[in-house]
Amino acid sequence: MLQDRFGRTIDYLRLSVTDRCDLRCSYCLPARFKGFEEPAHWLSFAEIRRVVAAFAALGVRRVRLTGGEPLLRKDLPQLAASLSALGLDDLSLSTNATQLLRFAPALKQAGVTRVNVSLDSLDRACLAGITGRDAHTAIFAGIMAAKAAELTPLKLNMVAMRGVNEQDIIPMAEFAMQHSFILRLIEAMPMGESGRNTAFLDLGPVREMLVQRFALQPEVIELGGGPARYWKTPDGLGRIGFITPMSQHFCASCNRVRLTVDGTLHLCLGQEHSVALRPLLRQGISDEALQQVIREAIELKPERHEFNEAPQKIIRFMSQTGG
Ligand code: SAM
């Protein structure tokens, strides 16, 4: 089992398979960004599998494929199949859904258990304003394909922004309930210039408003082992999660680390602590030594982020680290 200096058990790996994306969400990837990782630096599928196998041997049971947009990585279902063969408890995917119509059945077949879809608005114009292009039709077709392929429970992740998509929170909640999806509202984090320039919306008052509107009750059981705190409708069928890294951080229960496409292991989303695994993999490190490097890396995991105290600190934006 992997435990850090603060007694936290690390049992969750978020694996970025690409830093590229077909959208340019205003809070994430700057529109004119050119500094993508060069392909020679991308971990190969075999290298990724080795790292995940090392984590699995150390007790990590859950892996999420993310990016950039993970479905832009060629043959992603093939990678998913090779990772699910490691016998993980949960192999999930975060996606913007633009490619899901094409890939949902293959992902299910490859052993992906469920997907989280980023969706910030139901409204075509508002969504295009946030994502930088009109992908509404593809996104909704993708979401319905994931539902049909039973990549469930399907969570919709909505970054809530003051004056941008606040008005869409209730329609999003109703849409989610209608389709048995779980809506999760997320506070924007100051990651990179794009994150810092985002109109922050405190989710505390939003939660109060939704509690009134849908007669929500707090979920007693912890769902999913992640940072979201869930509330449910009186019939227990509708759920809304709140992810509040800014107004109420959850670092004390952080259970995750992140591997970027270039093989860098990041110990915290909001700090710089990291270890480069790619050179070690390419120098032929043994499985045992790789596990030892990971154990030592976990020792570096910082206690908490400093998004509030030092918002300018993290210059990498979310799609570089893997959200
Ligand atoms: N392309 C995939 C997707 O759209 O879900 C995976 C990568 S994306 C970077 C993962 C998540 O990070 C998305 O839900 C996105 O909304 C979130 N995200 C990106 N930048 C963020 C920021 N500055 N603050 C909060 N969430 C952010």
Tell me what you see in this structure.
This protein is α/β, with parallel strands linked by helices. It has helices at residues 45-57, 76-84, 100-109, 124-131, 136-148, 169-178, 192-196, 203-214, 278-282, 287-299, 318-321, and strands at 2-3, 9-10, 12-16, 62-66, 90-95, 114-118, 155-160, 182-187, 217-218, 229-232, 239-243, 256-259, 264-266, 274-276. The strands form two sheets. A twelve-stranded mixed β-sheet has the order 9-10-11-8-7-6-5-4-3-12-13-14. A two-stranded antiparallel ribbon has the order 1-2. Bound molecules: S-adenosylmethionine. The site of S-adenosylmethionine (SAM) has 20 residues, from strand 5, strand 7 and helix 11. S-adenosylmethionine is lined by residues 21, 27-28, 66-67, 69, 94-96, 118, 157, 159, 186, 188-189, 191, 195, 318-319, 323.
> How many strands?
14
| SSE run | EEEHEHEHEHHEHEHHEEEEEEHHH
> What would you call the shape?
globular
Major sheet details: 12 strands, mixed
Q: What share of the residues does DSSP label as strand, in percent?
A: 15-25%
Helix count, per DSSP?
A: 11
Mean pLDDT: 95
Strand order of the largest sheet: 9-10-11-8-7-6-5-4-3-12-13-14
Bound molecules: S-adenosylmethionine
- Radius of gyration, Cα only, in angstroms? 19 Å
Q: What assembly state would you assign to the polypeptide chains in this entry?
A: single chain
Helix-residue proportion: 25-40%
Question: Spans with pLDDT under 50 lasting ≥5 residues?
Answer: none
Q: What is the SS-derived class?
A: alpha/beta
Quote the distance from N terminus to C terminus.
24 Å
